[in-house]
């Protein structure tokens, strides 16, 4: 008896009566059903706003990053439950790894980025701040704050877990409760994952809700503080983009749509080159991983005409070795399509493509998947087509068979290859296989205008390359035109996309108070206590020390040169230095840096544990023999990462603004130093 799936709405699991049958892609048996009960989307939205949002904003960026890390670990510990259910989608173990462990890995990645790149609190200062007046009393900057809304994520069938988690991770960091709606055909795997999330107790109530089935009037209940993201077909994206309520309230809408991605074999590569085999391997892999059901898969393989036959033969030989069938059978390398409707759709589109392209491999003739009961499954043979005149053929650039299908197409010259790539009308990703850096430098800037990501493959990168079809958390995922025009992932960029950017104007003191970050010109806090003697909790932004002075002598320059080995003529050659723009010998810039540290460092053991970085260094003016320098050290920014050292001592990060001036009050060096500072508790 099939299991009725449930939605997770308002903190409750909803659904008892079966509705739509969801069949196993392996044998066609009904394994799950969507639920028939209607969802009260008013309740879902109200719960997200009144429970989820306040709970998320009780946490700050750092605390939310810690929750993501804990959740990633929990899902990893329970992954085998998900692998067992994923088998019904037709996925092999390797396919499921991309979805299940790729999803958990994305949580880990965002946990790390959030911990390392985001501040304490719930405001990001997108500086630097800058003066807007001549007297220093009026300044401006930008801040990012939580939108105060909810995120609705509508996902495709091909990645039931990763598809939701790669959207959820940055939304959660940005302080937005999420309502996820997976495609029905594989929603049973998403439901299993959300049950694990709920059982873990790691997320605050209201952070994540799940919709099984239709979105009903959900989009009608959103407002301008909310966001909608969509992954799926370009046609559905276009329909949702003009939803009346989305348009009325200018609700941000991010679409990641299917695209006719290409791989180009550059003309410098011959059949004897390692890169030739890399190209063939990459096309074959993208045809067969997830049975070709990836929005990033290679649909168009663009090849120099003189190598077309050689590529076709090698691809045929590689595809012929791919065993298709029940993934539980040893030796099977490719499973089924995710559903029987998908199987029918791919067959229909291949038939359209074959009207203008010849069959090289596949087509279903004498195709027998391996395994018992697979005759009722949603299998489709890897199918390679060939188009001899792609510039004169529209269908190969317009029709996408979302399965293990790719079309070879010939080109004559690089300009023609670029024309063919552009016929995709906007793609998520393109691959260029070349040995020649000059060819890459010619092709990439042109292709970049219509591609969200470009992957250059040669024997050097192949050692570590994750491949054409693998979006990675630190890099943007999305593309222009047909690909939807959206952006996902891209590291902390994705978090910022989900926040409200606001320009801020005011006095330096007011801007420092709002941003939690000192800016020059703001009021200083000067006491008899050296700032380095303060524990993390005690230290206030703006606490400052003006050091004593030091006059730089020739002996300093000679000693530093001997110590560092830096005998650059500006420091030691009196005649050459006089002919330079400075007109005199000057001190090493790094001597000025070291001398400044000697002025402001408190040498005794104390709360400052270590100096682990230096940012924004600028040497503004030269320091000559006889000049006198002085430094001002000011606590600029504090980040509480809620971490402890090996001895159990809590610590935070403090960024210090350092300004080094000469006897005329002119700034000669400016920078930030980063230190680990112990907590008192």
Output the keywords.
Thiol Ester Dehydrase, Chain A, Phenylacetic acid degradation bifunctional protein PaaZ, 6-stranded antiparallel sheet, 681 residues, Aldehyde Dehydrogenase, Chain A, domain 2, 20 helices, 24% strand, HotDog_dom_sf, alpha/beta, Ald_DH_N, oxidoreductase activity, acting on the aldehyde or oxo group of donors, NAD or NADP as acceptor, PaaN-DH
Description of the structure:
The protein is α/β, with parallel strands linked by helices and 681 residues long. The chain has 3 domains: 41-119 and 146-254, Aldehyde Dehydrogenase, Chain A, domain 1; 262-471, Aldehyde Dehydrogenase, Chain A, domain 2; 524-678, Hotdog Thioesterase (Thiol Ester Dehydrase, Chain A). Helix content is 32%, strand content 24%. It has 20 helices and 29 strands. α3 runs antiparallel to α6 (187-200) and α4 packs parallel to α5 (162-173). The longest helix is centred in the N-terminal third of the chain and has 25 residues, at 93-117. The two termini are 57 Å apart. The model has no long low-confidence stretch (mean pLDDT 92).
């Amino acid at each position: 008896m099939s299991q009725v799936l449930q939605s997770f709405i308002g903190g409750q699991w909803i659904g008892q009566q079966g509705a739509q049958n969801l069949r196993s892609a392996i044998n066609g048996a009904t394994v799950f059903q969507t639920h028939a009960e209607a969802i009260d989307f008013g309740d879902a939205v109200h719960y997200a706003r009144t429970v989820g949002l306040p709970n998320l904003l009780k946490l700050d960026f750092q605390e939310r990053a810690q929750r993501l890390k804990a959740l990633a670990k929990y899902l990893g510990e329970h992954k085998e439950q998900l692998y067992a259910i994923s088998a019904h989608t037709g996925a092999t173990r390797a396919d499921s790894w991309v979805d299940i462990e790729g999803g958990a890995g994305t949580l880990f990645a965002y946990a790390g980025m959030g911990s390392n790149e985001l501040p304490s609190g719930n405001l990001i200062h997108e500086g630097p701040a800058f003066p807007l007046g001549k007297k220093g009393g009026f300044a401006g900057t930008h801040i990012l704050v939580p939108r105060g809304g909810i995120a609705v994520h509508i996902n495709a069938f091909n990645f039931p877990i990763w598809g939701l988690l790669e959207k959820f991770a940055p939304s959660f960091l940005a302080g937005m409760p999420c309502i996820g709606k997976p495609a029905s055909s594989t929603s049973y795997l998403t439901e299993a994952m959300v049950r694990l999330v709920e059982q873990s107790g790691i997320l605050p109530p209201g952070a994540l809700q799940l919709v099984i089935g239709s979105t009903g009037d959900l989009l009608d209940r959103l407002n301008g503080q909310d966001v909608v993201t969509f992954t799926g077909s370009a046609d559905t994206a276009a329909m949702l983009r003009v939803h009346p309520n989305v348009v009325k309230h200018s609700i941000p809408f991010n679409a990641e749509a299917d695209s006719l991605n290409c791989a180009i074999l550059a003309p410098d590569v011959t059949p004897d080159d390692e890169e030739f085999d890399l190209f063939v391997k990459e096309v074959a892999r993208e045809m067969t991983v997830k049975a070709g059901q990836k929005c990033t898969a290679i649909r168009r393989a663009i090849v120099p005409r003189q190598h077309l036959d050689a590529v076709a033969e090698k691809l045929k030989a590689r595809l012929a070795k791919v065993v298709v069938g029940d993934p539980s059978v040893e030796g099977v390398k490719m499973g089924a399509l995710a559903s029987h409707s998908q199987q029918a759709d791919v067959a229909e589109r291949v038939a359209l493509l074959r009207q203008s392209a010849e069959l090289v491999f596949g087509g279903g003739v004498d195709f027998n998947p391996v395994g018992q009961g697979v005759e009722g499954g949603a299998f489709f043979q890897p199918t390679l087509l060939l188009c001899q005149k792609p510039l004169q053929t529209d269908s190969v650039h317009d029709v996408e068979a979302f399965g293990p299908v790719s079309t070879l197409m010939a080109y004559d010259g690089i300009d023609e290859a670029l024309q063919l790539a552009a016929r995709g009308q906007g793609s998520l990703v393109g691959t260029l296989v070349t040995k020649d850096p000059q060819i890459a430098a010619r092709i990439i800037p042109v292709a970049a205008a219509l591609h969200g990501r470009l992957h250059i493959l040669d024997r050097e990168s192949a050692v570590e390359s994750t491949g054409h079809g693998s979006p990675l958390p630190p890099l943007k995922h999305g593309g222009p035109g047909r690909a939807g025009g959206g952006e996902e992932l891209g590291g902390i960029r994705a978090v910022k996309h989900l926040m409200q950017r606001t320009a801020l104007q005011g006095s330096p003191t007011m801007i420092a108070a709002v941003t939690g970050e000192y800016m020059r010109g703001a009021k200083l806090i000067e006491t008899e206590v050296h700032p380095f003697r303060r524990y993390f909790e005690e230290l206030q932004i703006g606490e400052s020390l003006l050091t004593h002075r030091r006059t730089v002598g020739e002996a300093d320059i000679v000693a530093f040169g001997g110590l560092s080995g830096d005998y650059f003529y500006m420091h030691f050659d009196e005649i050459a230095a006089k002919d330079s723009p400075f007109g005199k010998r000057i001190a090493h810039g790094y001597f000025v840096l070291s001398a400044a540290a000697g002025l402001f460092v408190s040498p005794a053991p104390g709360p400052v544990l270590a100096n682990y970085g230096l940012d924004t260094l600028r040497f503004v003016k030269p320091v000559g023999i006889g000049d006198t320098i002085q430094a001002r050290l000011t606590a600029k920014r504090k980040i509480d990462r809620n971490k402890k050292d090996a001895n159990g001592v809590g610590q935070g990060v403090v960024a210090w603004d350092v300004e080094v001036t000469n006897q005329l009050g002119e700034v000669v060096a400016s920078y930030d130093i980063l230190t680990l500072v112990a907590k008192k508790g």
